Each structure stands twice: as structure tokens, then as C-alpha cells.
Amino acid sequence: MDMRPVTVALVEDEPEVLAAIAKVIRASPRLHLLQTSSTALDVMRWLAKNPVDVLLVDLGLPDRPGTDVIRLCRSLQPKCEIMVLSTFGDAYHMLQAFEAGARGYLLKNGTEDELATHVLSLHAGGAPMSPMIASQLLSRWQEGARKPPVPVARSDRKIDALSPRELEVLQLVARGCTYSETATHLKISVTTVQAHVRNIYGKLDVHNKAEALYEARQLGLLD
């Protein structure tokens, strides 16, 4: 019987979430965390040179979609098991992830307590999923669907319009500017920038920068 710890790589752009997940993995004697990354490019470079048993992927990464990481890992390391850890619980993202090569899909809320168990289950041949994801997958299977839903056209999306200033803030953040740099560029305070960002999140119905940038691109607000 192989008693070697299951090796794990993690890519997550939110520092607090990354730290929490890493803490859970490190606390398990049966798991060994080899790599943590905050961008798709960083983990993709790492995967090209380092074998790993399990890859945990956030879909809303700042530089490239998490599905790109999944596809590359599946190509480079066919034996690596891949599980999504995401705030995206909709059918579109779920099907995109599974089609790219993921075999597990957990929503971030409420997964930490049992995360180690889920990682070990995945490595042993299981397919851990949050109940909401499993329910959607079952419904899609029962309906006989074969393709992910087409994203709603921009003209059909019902969202509150961003103000010209909010669009300026969004564009600068998308270019990688910090709040301080954005404030300097627009000649406003950092506090005002933070207020604009909160308004942007509310209008786009998102919870972090990666989700905001993804949603803005889907709506045609960014190039």
C-alpha cells in the first residue's frame, strides 16, 4: 500500500482564500502542498516542470481563465486529478470546467472543513462536488443537454449602468493598477477609488476583482 502523501498544487488569486486553503492542506498528514500560485501563468509554468497528484484551481484568475490551466494540466500531466474551487456555481462555468478536464467541483463557501477529505477522495478516483453542482449536473444529464448555455447577449443583460468614473476605475484596475495608482491617475483619493470599486461589484453582482473583470468582459465593458 502506497503511504506516500498526496501532493497538491493550488492556484488562487485571493490571498485570504489561498492562505485558508493552504492551511487546511498543510494540516493533513496525508497531503503535501508543493505549490501555491496566484496567477494562471505562474502555475502553468510550474506544471510544465513539476509533477503533482492533485491540482486545485480557481476559475476566476486575474490573467487567464482557470479552464486554460485545467486544459494545460490535462495535456501535460494526464494522471493529475483536477478539482475546481470557485465562487461560480452556474451551469456555464461548471460545464466549461468539466469539459476542460476537471473531475471535481467545490464551491468555496463551506468547503474548508472537509477539503482534505475531498482531495483524498479525488485522488482515490472519486468526483467530489458541492450539492448545488451535483444537482445541476444531474439536471443537465436528465435533460440530455450536450452544450453549455450561450452567455446572454450584452443587450439582454439587466444590470445597472456603470458611471463614466466607474468605467475609468474598472479600466485602470483591469490594466493592473493598484488602488493607489488609480487614485493618482484620476486625481482622487484611495477611499474614493474603494467606494467606486464597491459600487462596481454591486452593479455587476460580483464579489472580487477577478469576477468583476470576467463579468465586465462578458458585457463588452473591457477590450
UniProtKB/TrEMBL annotation:
UniProt-listed Gene3D superfamilies: 3.40.50.2300, Winged helix-like DNA-binding domain superfamily/Winged helix DNA-binding domain (1.10.10.10)
Domain HTH luxR-type: 155-220
Domain Response regulatory: 7-123
Domain of life: Bacteria
Positions bearing 4-aspartylphosphate: 58
CDD domains: LuxR_C_like, REC_NarL-like
Presence of keyword Transcription: yes
Keywords per UniProt: DNA-binding, Phosphoprotein, Transcription, Transcription regulation
InterPro entries according to UniProt: CheY-like_superfamily, NreC/VraR/RcsB-like_REC, Sig_transdc_resp-reg_C-effctor, Sig_transdc_resp-reg_receiver, Tscrpt_reg_LuxR_C, WalR-like, WH-like_DNA-bd_sf
Protein name from the UniProt record: Response regulator transcription factor
